[in-house]
Amino acid sequence: MQARRSRKPPDHSRVEMTEIVLPEDTNQYGHAWGGHVMTLIDKAAAIASTRHCRTNVVTASVDSLTFRAPVKLGHILKLYASVNAAFHTSMEVGVKVLSEDPLSGLQAHCCSAFVTMVALDATGRPTPVPGLALRTPEERRRQRAAAQRRRSRLAGR
Ligand SMILES: CC(C)(COP(=O)(O)OP(=O)(O)OC[C@H]1O[C@@H](n2cnc3c(N)ncnc32)[C@H](O)[C@@H]1OP(=O)(O)O)[C@@H](O)C(=O)NCCC(=O)NCCS
C-alpha cells in the first residue's frame, strides 16, 4: 500500500453548492423528494473528498439523516460540505443543507449528514488519503467528533 501523503487543510476541499428545486424534484404536494436532497448530499461529499485526495472515491456509508423542515418547489437549496477527518483510506465529510425562500430570503436548516467516502487507487482498491492539516479550534473539534462517530460506525459494521 502507498505511504500516506502530505496534509491538506479542510479549506482546500470545501464545497458550496446552490440549487433551485424544480418540479421534477418534488412530490405531488410540491415538496422536494428526500432522495433528491440525498443525491445532492452525496454529490457534495464526493466533490469535497475528491478535492482532498485527488483520486476516485466511493460512498461507503451515510449516517442517519433527519429532515428537519420541508423544502418547497422554487426554493433554493444551499449545501456546505467539508472534510471533517481523514483516517487511513476513508474520510468523513460533513454536509449541511439549508433551504432559502427566494422571495423572503428566509433560511431554514433542512438537514445535516455525515458521509464516509473511501479513496480508491487505479485498480479500485482502497488507498491512503492525505491527512488533514487542522488549524482552528473548530476544525479540531470536528475532527474529534468525527473520530468518535467512526468508532460507533465501525462497531456496527
Ligand atoms: C467501501 C468499500 C470500498 C470498502 O471496501 P473494503 O474491502 O471493505 O475495504 P476495507 O475494509 O479496507 O475498508 C476501507 C475503508 O472503508 C471504511 N469502511 C468500510 N465500510 C465502511 C462503513 N460501512 N462505514 C464507514 N466506513 C467504512 C473502512 O473503515 C476503511 O477506512 P480506513 O482505511 O480509513 O480505516 C467497499 O465496501 C465498496 O466498494 N462498497 C461499495 C461502494 C459503492 O459502490 N458506493 C456507492 C453505492 S451506489
Rg on CA atoms, Å: 16 Å
CATH superfamily name?
A: Hotdog Thioesterase
Helix content: 10-25%
Please list the strands of the largest sheet in the order they lie side by side: 1-3-4-5-2
Specify the structural class: alpha+beta
Q: How would you describe this structure in keywords?
A:
single chain; 157 residues; alpha+beta; Thiol Ester Dehydrase, Chain A; five-stranded antiparallel β-sheet; 5 strands; 31% strand; binds coenzyme A
Question: Can you walk through the features of this model?
Answer:
The protein is of the alpha+beta class and 157 residues long. It has a single domain (10-155), classed as Hotdog Thioesterase (Thiol Ester Dehydrase, Chain A), CATH 3.10.129.10. Helices cover 25% and strands 31% of the residues. It contains two helices and five strands. It has helices spanning 34-53, 137-155; strands spanning 15-20, 56-62, 76-86, 90-100, 107-120. Strands 1-3-4-5-2 form a five-stranded antiparallel β-sheet. A hairpin with a 6-residue loop joins strand 4 (90-100) and strand 5 (107-120). Coenzyme A (COA) binds at residues 58-61, 87-90, 116, 118, 126, 153-154, 157.
List the topology elements.
Blueprint: E1 15-20, H1 34-53, E2 56-62, E3 76-86, E4 90-100, E5 107-120, H2 137-155
Antiparallel strand pairs: 1-3, 2-5, 3-4, 4-5
Bound molecules: coenzyme A (COA).
Coenzyme A is lined by residues 58-61, 87-90, 116, 118, 126, 153-154, 157.
